[in-house]
Amino acid sequence: MQHPNTASPSGNAVSADNRHQTGSDDTGVDAGHNQNHHRGKAERDEWLFAPDLPIGNNPLFEWPLNARRILTYYRDYWLTVSEVSIFFVLAVAGWFALRGVLEGAAVLSAGWVLAVWALNLAVVLVFAGGFHLFFYQLRAQGTDLKYVPQFGHRGGSRFTFGSQVRDNMFWSLASGVSVWTGYLVFLLWAHAQGWTPAITVTAQPVTFIVVALFTGPWIAFHFYWGHRFLHVGPLYRHVHSLHHRNVNIGPWSGISMHPIEHVIYFSSMLIHLVVPSHPVLIMFHGYMLSLSAIFGHTGFHEMMIGNRARVAVGHFHHQLHHRYFECNYGSVDFPLDVWFGTFHDGTPEARRRLKSRLGPRWQR
Ligand SMILES: [Zn+2]
Ligand SMILES: [Zn+2]
Description:
The structure is a single chain. The chain is about 50% helix and about 5% strand. It has helices at about 65-80, 85-100, 110-135, 165-195, 205-230, 235-245, 260-265, 280-295, 315-325, 335-340, 350-360, and strands at about 10-15, 50, 300-305, 310. The strands form 2 sheets. It has a two-stranded antiparallel sheet. A two-stranded antiparallel sheet has the order 3-4. The longest helix is centred in the middle third of the chain and has 30 residues, at about 165-195. One zinc ion (ZN) binds near residues 243, 297, 318 and 322. One zinc ion binds near residues 227, 231, 240 and 244.
C-alpha cells in the first residue's frame, strides 16, 4: 500500500555500501550501468536509493488535525497518476467489461466465474510481468531509484522450482490469483443475491466516495494484524517464511505467499458484507490488495517514463520490513506501527530503537 508521501522524487541516490543487506549468499550483485556514486548522509549508506526520511504516515490520524496536510495527502493519493487512481480506473473498466456476464451472478456458473478469474490472471500477468520485464529483464531504468543494488536472488536452493522468479510466479498465479478470485466471486455472488448492503453511484454518491477513500486505511489496519500474527513462531516458519524467502524483492514477490497467508490477506475484502458496497468498490479493493503489493515489491521507488514522468511504485515502508523483518507490519495509511512501537521510519534512530527492542534477537 503505497502512499505518495513516501514517494518523494527528491530522495537522494546514495552509495551502494549495502553492509546490512542480508541474504547475500546467493544474491546476484549487479553494479548497474547508471550508478550514482554521490555519498549522501551516512545514515542512508545502507541504501542505494532512499526517499526523504523519515517516512511519514497518513495525517488523518495525527492530532491536532491539519486540514491542509490531509487534503494534500488525499489529493496526491487520488488526483495524480498513482497506483490508487490506476486501480480505480481499472476497477471501473473491469466492471464495464464484466457487466454482461455479471448480470447472471446470482447463479454460480462456470461462465462468469471463469471470466472473473481470467481478468484477475490477466492484470497480474500484465503488471507483475510488465514490471519484471521493464525493471529486471530489460533493465530499462538501470539502478536509478532502486533501493538495493541486487536484481533478485541467484541460485535457487530456497525456492520452489529452484528459481526465485519461477517460485514467485507459481505462488502468485496458482494460489494468489485463485484465492483472490474466490473472495471476489463470493462477494459478487452475495451482492447479486442481495445479501450485501448495495449502493449505486447515482443514489448514494457520498457513501460511494467515502467507502473508496477508506479502502486504503482499512486494508492497512487489517494487514497489520494479520501480518503480526504471521510473524509468530510456527506460523512464520510454516507459512509466512515463504514470502520472506525474498530478501531481494521483485514485482513477482508481491503476492508470492503461502495459500494460508493468501486466505488471511485477501479476507479484508469480506468487509463488503457489512459496508455499503458496489461491484466497482469490491473490485477496487481486490486491486488494492493484489496489484498494490506488486507495485510495492518492485524494489524501485519510482518508474521513470522518458526523462521526466515518474510514477511512484515502491513502498519503502515495506522494503524496510523485508530487510529488518520485525518492524513495519502495516503501511503508512494507518499508523498502527507507530502506535504499537513497531514503526521504522528509515532513520538511524529508528534502527537503533529496533536494535534495542530486539536485544539478542538483533542479527545485523
Ligand atoms: Zn513483502
Ligand atoms: Zn513479514
